[in-house]
Amino acid sequence: MQLHLQTWPEVEAYLQRSHGIILPIGSTEQHGPVGVIGTDAICAEVIARGVGEAAPALVGPTIGVGMAQHHLGFAGSITLRPSTLIAVLRDMVESLAGHGFENFYFINGHGGNIATVTAAFSEIYATRSLSPAGSVAPVKCRLRNWWQGEGVGRIAKELYGDAEGSHATPSEVAVTQFAYPEAIKSAPLDPVIAPRGDFSDAADYRRNFPDGRIGSNSALATPEAGKRLYDAAVAALTKDYLGWVGG
Ligand SMILES: [Zn+2]
């Protein structure tokens, strides 16, 4: 159930039975020569919609641009500053909290978002803690990274071992190939498995990881693997969401 395909009376009726909403959050950033720019947003969106159907639960608009400053050395990447992303998340949550939503379940597609999203939760909670009791609508937020869902990591390990790496992973590329088979890319990768290491700003990242990948061989991705990963992520996150909202 997607929020943007409902009417306001339908949302009011939904709020009679549930106060939970799922919010996909991703990023618009390079994913090496094989992975598409929207990889993180696509993974978060399709998995969130799958959870929304299985639960069932309302799924809000995808937050498709995240905190990706370190990817700006590559064409097409877009970032929000951490402070901007915090402001966006606060405004979205407060808008929906005013209507009676209380449980905000973020399904995340980008590791670079985690620190900022967690800080946004603290801002949202601080507003409540600093306000007189009962004057602000109650809110609980949870962040879940789709690739850490129960069983998802095991499939990635089985399929890809150490070639999974940590950016432009064959797992995330596979999920995009399952979602958009018409956009499957191929390109020579040299070296086949990308280097590992750390980074600071965009120039440092590009120096350390010249083609954009970190530790991965994205060319191992297949849409069939994407379907397996998708199914496992939807099952794990649906269970987690229902346990949280119900409890
Ligand atoms: Zn990614």
Report on the structure:
By secondary structure, the chain is an alpha/beta fold. Helices cover 44% and strands 8% of the residues. Strands 2-1-3-4 form a 4-stranded parallel beta sheet, sandwiched between helices. Helix 2 (39-54) crosses helix 6 (170-179) and helix 3 (82-97) crosses helix 4. The longest helix is centred in the C-terminal third of the chain and has 24 residues, at 223-246. The chain is globular. The structure holds zinc ion. Residues 31, 39-40, 110, 172 line the site of zinc ion.
Put the structure in a nutshell.
The protein is 44% helix and 8% strand.
Entry keywords:
247 residues, alpha/beta, binds zinc ion, 8% strand, 4-stranded parallel sheet
What is the CA–CA distance across the termini?
21 Å
Helix content: 40-55%
Number of helices: 8
Mean pLDDT, to the nearest integer, reads 97
Report on the biggest sheet: 4 strands, parallel
* Physical arrangement of strands within the biggest beta sheet: 2-1-3-4
| Topology order in helix (H) and strand (E) letters | HEHEHEHEHHHH
Whole-angstrom Rg: 18 Å
Helix/strand-derived category reads alpha/beta
Bound molecules: zinc ion
> What is the number of beta strands?
4
Shape: globular
Question: Which range does the strand content fall in?
Answer: 5-15%
Provide the low-confidence segments as ranges. Answer: none
